[in-house]
Amino acid sequence: MKVREVYIKTFGCQMNEHDSEKILGILFSKGFIETDDPKKADIIIFNTCAIREKAEQKFLSNLGKVKFYKIKNPKIKVIVAGCSAQIQGKNLIHKMPFIDYIIGPDNIDKIEKIVEESLDKRILLEENANIHLLSLPILRKDRVKAWVNIIYGCNNFCTYCVVPYTRGKERSRPANMILEEIKHLSEKGYKEVTLLGQNVNSYRDGEIDFPILLQRINLIQGIERIRFVTSHPKDLSENLIKTMRDSPKICEHIHLPLQSGSDKILKLMNRKYTFNEYFDKVSLLRENIPNISITTDIIVGFPQETDEDFEKTINALKKSQFDGIFAFKFSPRPKAPASNYRGQVDEYTKSERLTEVLRLQDEITEKNNKIYQDTVQEILVEERTEEGVIGRTRSNKIVKIKSNLELGQLVKVKISKTYRHSLEGEILQ
Ligand code: 5AD
Ligand code: SF4
């Protein structure tokens, strides 16, 4: 019998990438192999993102092509998974009847029943209160770094964000499951784990909060580096900062989305902090962890953002001196309250503001990277290329090294050149 093949395309964040590893884990356990040619596949899966309109458009244009594959080979099963599947629901099947199944992020375990053909429903979107208790097989793409879910969903309801409506309410995974998974990873030779959650800082399993969980992971032998995303500034405690400082394996990097420098806009966004409160946390991080790199997310053109408000974001960037940012134009999303706020900003102004933010940050990023010149850094080798290897510093900067190192090796290098988005290093003998 022919081996069945799956083609999967993933859009969006690390959470989605990791969900795809689980989907593939289930399919491989059923004998599937992966193909990069959708025309050859028995199953085509799109794991979709709904965070901004652009992400959705990208997936819709990809899906358009699939219709023709299906006409040629009606046996192909087309599955749409992820956040856009959740938010668009049955509308998607109405518009594109060639889709066979729609499954939301809380229902990825149903893939098994789909391929066993033992499922009579085509639309699987209900919140699965127990998704955090399942141990699904995972087909990991990487041999050195691994993602580990610690908390699902989000209770914060930022007014621009669709996630609370796509990934449901917060559910923390039991700490013992997380620790077991990481022990297994270390036995398999993994060196780095990235703990995943919409808001990792609100992790809780009984007495075990996020700092305690980190302290326990820090004790697992073989794991050399611990990272986590994403932190909500309002929940970043002094206790967590001290834990980062005192746990040698926790890397000196934090992604701490600011979103805006204007208190008025932050309030409209329901972020629950002012810029000064945010900046106090940045200062506390830098006092305790001198070499920490801090990255952030910025939204420009949120409803009612005036030139004055935007100027405050520019000043916030100048004051905070981030190591890197992701900046976006506000994109109205279904169900997100800000989509219906008065004072929507026109597209031209949004583009102007985005350009200005990116130009300023480019300068800051480049300047911050220059500080690395001639310093000695510990690099974890993550990738081999024709010219050598690529790894990262503990502060998450990409370093290229002309050398023949093995994947997973930790080496000390001297930074010999700095660029805006990467560094070059030479091995210290
Ligand atoms: N429009 C633009 N950017 C958004 N983000 C989330 N929702 C929207 C939206 N509607 C950004 C935020 C968040 C990051 C993951 O995506 O900056 O931190
Ligand atoms: Fe990830 Fe957010 Fe996109 Fe969902 S909407 S896939 S959580 S980025």
Describe the structure.
The protein has 429 residues and is α/β, with parallel strands linked by helices. It is built from 13 helices and 21 strands. Helices cover 34% and strands 22% of the residues. Helix 8 packs parallel to helix 9 (238-246), helix 9 packs parallel to helix 11 (275-288) and helix 12 (307-320) packs parallel to helix 13. The chain starts with a strand and ends with a strand. The model has no long low-confidence stretch (mean pLDDT 96). It binds 5'-deoxyadenosine and iron/sulfur cluster (SF4). Residues 12-13, 15-16, 49-51, 82-83, 162-163, 166-167 line the site of iron/sulfur cluster (SF4).
Short summary of the structure?
By secondary structure, the chain is α/β, with parallel strands linked by helices. It has a six-stranded parallel sheet, sandwiched between helices. Strands 17-18-19-21-20 form a five-stranded mixed beta barrel. The chain has 13 helices and 21 strands.
Keywords:
OB fold (Dihydrolipoamide Acetyltransferase, E2P), binds iron/sulfur cluster, 429 residues, 3 domains, globular, binds 5'-deoxyadenosine, Rossmann fold, pyruvate-formate lyase- activating enzyme
